[in-house]
Write a structure and sequence with these properties.
Elements: E1 4-8, E2 11-14, H1 15-38, H2 42-67, H3 69-72, H4 89-106, H5 111-136, E3 150-153, E4 159-162, H6 165-183, H7 192-209, H8 223-242
Antiparallel strand pairs: 1-2, 3-4
């Protein structure tokens, strides 16, 4: 665990916020490259992305707080503590999708093409965010003595041999990113890449969620399991519906 990445002029730079910030910057850069490759206005994509990032972070934080309410209701001040981890993609993505419906037409950006490009931003950002989780100790894996288990801490600083779920999720995001680069040109309609990658992420998350260390007293099937399952079904259904016959 390295919750403090480094200190500069007496100021602590916390690992999770720092890696999240780096991921956002790298993700926006990746989205800019993808926009140029797709032939859509890269500057307008940049503006739309910056507008959507703030609400997405707010939604991501709130779903994390809601799913760990037993912890935060005892100490509400921790809800907005920027030194700790705690963001959920499933809270950020719906907010971005809803806000993009009026925003993209106002910026004269096509919905499907924008979200294909945004997928590169999201996947790159996710890789760095999971590295931040690893350094912070959040999203830790279950105790394990199996092959591949690593001596790691959880968010409480308890060290044990665990499944390295943060590394697995970062690796899965990297696999999806490479896949997106390879298959993008073969897909038959704008938005197909977004739907395909969303289904792929949710399918992987459905498995990886079960490998995380459970909260005390939490049910085996969490809200994130349910969201993952619904997301897979909805994404595959949309792909089937819109795929040209």
């Amino acid at each position: 665990m390295r919750r403090i990445l480094f200190e500069w002029r007496g100021r602590r730079i916390w690992s999770y916020p720092a890696l999240l910030y780096i991921g956002l910057v790298a993700g926006v850069a990746a989205g800019n490259i993808a926009a140029h490759a797709a032939g859509i206005d890269a500057f307008r994509v940049y503006v739309a992305t910056l507008i959507l990032i703030g609400p997405a972070l707010l939604g991501a934080r709130l779903i994390h707080v809601a799913s760990h309410w037993r912890l935060y209701r005892r100490n509400p001040r921790r809800i907005w503590d920027r030194t700790e981890g705690g963001f959920g993609m499933y809270g950020g993505l719906p907010v971005m999708l809803l806000l993009s419906l009026p925003l993209l037409p106002a910026l004269r950006l096509p919905l499907g093409a924008f979200w294909d490009v945004a997928m590169f931003t999201i996947l790159v950002g996710m890789i760095f965010a999971r590295i931040g989780c690893l350094l912070n100790g959040c999203c830790a894996g279950r105790l394990s003595r199996g092959w591949g288990a690593v001596y790691l801490p959880n968010h409480l600083g308890v060290w044990a041999t665990r499944i390295p779920t943060q590394c697995l999720e970062a690796g899965w995001a990297a696999v999806l990113l490479v896949t997106a680069i390879v298959v993008w040109g073969w897909l038959s309609f704008p938005g197909a890449l977004f739907l395909l990658m969303t289904a792929g992420y949710a399918a992987g998350r459905l498995l990886l969620e079960s490998l995380r260390e459970p909260e005390p007293g939490a049910a085996g099937f969490s809200i994130h399991h349910a969201i993952s399952a619904v997301t897979v079904v909805a994404s595959v259904a949309a792909l089937t519906l819109y795929w040209p016959r």
